[in-house]
Predict the 3D structure of the following.
Amino acid sequence: MSQTAIKPRTKAETRTERPRLHKVILHNDDYTPREFVVAVLKAEFGMTEDHAHNVMITAHRLGSCVVGVFAKDIAETKATRATDAGREMGFPLLFTTEPED
Ligand code: TYC
């Protein structure tokens, strides 16, 4: 008869999960000037004029556009700063965040 001793596993699994990334989303509105949206995208997200214009016009036509994907705290800080830049000028410009699937 074979007697195989099975050693119980003692080491806990150390699988490191990467923190989920969060999308920053730009929402269209009827009041914020296009050039202002482009300027905020350039200033807060380091976009070129071309890239910022593409993102702005996509949000304008479709209602919203993903601006970028960041760690949660960075996404929230950027969305808040960009939204505040609009509010300071009296515009309803809105950036929100949501976890990436
Ligand atoms: N719809 C705005 C206008 O026609 C421009 C705009 C574009 C505003 C994108 C917000 O996320 C936005 N003046």
Notes: The helical segments are 34-45, 49-62, 72-88.
